[in-house]
């Protein structure tokens, strides 16, 4: 199957929200394709000292929450700050997958609540109150999510290779079924 942005879907939404939603949809598909078969130890493995898959998936969910909070014009809560500081902590594969799925679903709903008329409204980001806009934050939701899902996929492939499974096997099987772009 082709990537979400090439499926002609979500045409009822403006281009910015549509592309953010497509990026979140692609991230969800990649989580299911590459991360659902990992054991607890594989989900938390740090091959060559790199960040584990669990970190990237938790970071996706939690950073989307933070970025959308800024886009909505609100400050981060203590709970969000605590979550930020615990992203590297280990967790079961089931817990991590549940969190990223819920985070992506919630992000989709929150993106839909943002009006295109607000895209140029200024927003302050972080303790330093760095300047951005609602539209800039939405675009960053998409690009940041894709950056971390790519890192999660790469780490998952390394982990699969370490268990003796060729890291390309899932991709190869999908190609053979005609489910991804060659």
Automatic annotation (TrEMBL):
Residues 23-152 form the DinB-like domain. InterPro entries: DinB-like, DinB/YfiT-like. Pfam families: DinB_2. This is DinB family protein. The lineage of its organism: Bacteria, Pseudomonadati, Acidobacteriota, Terriglobia, Terriglobales.
């Amino acid at each position: 199957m082709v990537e979400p942005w090439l499926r002609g879907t979500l045409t009822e939404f403006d281009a910015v929200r549509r592309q953010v939603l497509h990026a979140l949809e692609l991230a969800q598909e990649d989580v299911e394709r590459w991360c659902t078969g990992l054991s607890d130890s594989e989900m938390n493995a740090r091959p060559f000292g790199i960040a584990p898959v669990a970190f990237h998936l938790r970071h996706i969910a939690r950073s989307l929450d933070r970025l959308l909070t800024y886009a909505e014009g609100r400050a981060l809560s203590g709970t969000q700050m605590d979550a930020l500081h615990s992203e590297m902590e280990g967790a079961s594969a089931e817990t991590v997958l549940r969190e990223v799925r819920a985070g992506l679903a919630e992000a989709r709903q929150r993106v839909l609540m943002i009006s295109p008329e607000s895209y140029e409204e200024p927003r302050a980001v972080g303790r330093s109150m760095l300047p951005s806009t609602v539209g800039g934050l939405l675009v960053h939701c998409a690009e940041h999510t894709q950056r971390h899902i790519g890192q999660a996929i790469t780490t998952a492939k390394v982990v699969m290779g370490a268990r003796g499974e060729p890291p390309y096997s899932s991709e190869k099987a999908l190609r053979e079924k005609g489910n991804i772009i060659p």
